[in-house]
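Ex. 9. Protein: D-methionine transport system permease protein.
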Amino acid sequence: MFQTTVTVDQFLQAMVDTFYMVGFSLLVGSIIGIPLGILLVITRPGGIIENSVFFKMVNPVINMVRSLPFIILLVAIIPFTRLIVQTSIGTAAAIVPLIIYVSPFIARLVENSILEVDDGIIEAAESMGATPMQTIWYFLVPEAMGSLILSLTTATISLLSATAMAGAVGGGGIGDLAISYGYERFDSFIMLVTVVVLIIFVQVIQSVGNWLAAKVRREN
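Predicted structure tokens for D-methionine transport system permease protein:
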């Protein structure tokens, strides 16, 4: 029979911490990333509100942050994390780098989703006298909604993976459980359980995202 040093309460708390980190980071990251992605589309050369200064300033910054592996970003901004939450360990500390990690990721995904919309949609909006804001809200976003849902699904799964990596530096959650007990204390059973749980989470998230995207596309 398998034995483990982890109690059920510890495992349940780790799951709660993971849900909290993913949920809060996704919420704040979406609030930052979605408008940023839209701005990248409309201010790019040939966009409906072309602004080369904004685009040339923001685009490289997004590329720079996205080029950093999460584990390196996590360590590199420890002083900033301490400044914000007064600690560099635990779930609260992990949320800071998670937001910085996922915001530009969402922005780029949103940008790509909206760029997939046919140019004829924009032309139709302009022919009806729609303002730039109306074009975005009533034409571009609804047309790209299915793709946007899949983009956020991808971002959620990436966040889940990042929370597991955060466990390497005491970030809390399932990842911390796997490192602290599964790896450092050679608890193979809890390592196996955390892997299975993460796989199940990913499958559920992807399935829900696919279903929502398909539903939206049928309605459109």
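Check your answer against this statement. The domain at 8-219 is CATH 1.10.3720.10 (MetI-like fold).
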